[in-house]
Amino acid sequence: MDAYSHYTAFRADMPHPGVLRLTLNRPDSLNTLDKAGHQEIADVWKQIHKDDAVRSVLLCAEGRAFSAGGDFSLVQELIDDFGARVRMWHEARELVHNILDCEKPIVSAIQGPAVGAGLVAALLADISIASKKAKIVDGHTRLGVAAGDHAAIIWPLLCGIAKAKYYLMLCEPMTGEEAERIGLVSLAVEPEELAERAMNAAIRLAEGAPTAIRWTKHSLNNWMRAAGPAFDASLALELLGFGGPEAREGLASHLEKRTPDFGNK
Question: How many C-beta atoms surround the C-beta of residue 199 within 10 A?
């Protein structure tokens, strides 16, 4: 695993022949992603795509959370710095497209809170398995920016436009059990079953016919690629919002642990 040892946001190991396990490993901060981590979770899929030793990927996390999203210092940088917003536009596009274009099948195991770039990777995985008690939320509108990242490219396809608008516009959290009910994740299981069920899926993929599985993934992912223009628009609007007053108030309210005041009272 020396080829993956330089990553800081997650550790890599191979618990079964052909299965690369990526474990988000900042449990003390609920596996939030800092500036380096956000870049890493976008870049690693290109490396995996070219790694002949990898036949499937298991994306999981250490501790009680899958990922609490980007840390507040990263959000502050996006608010303050135009160059940071341009950089993030490239990274966020790469995260989505690199996952879609990675030929190796990906399984995600989602526990606890799942937000932000971590949620992007979890929901774009080919098979997403969540603990029934997981807490999934797209927090963009609560932060004062448009739901960009991955939402427009995948939520309407998975759960329908009515459910997508309800959860994204209201920033409504859902459990893993509810996520399975509406079709947002592949499967919801009891918390104690999560690691085993996800690993078994990754092993089955690794032991299956590689070309058949990879070409099936590529074909199905054309549904997401077809939504590319909607995704580009949502991401551009999200990052445009980081330069406005609503994002400043959204961040301030998070830091001060209060209800945001977006000037509508």
Answer: 19
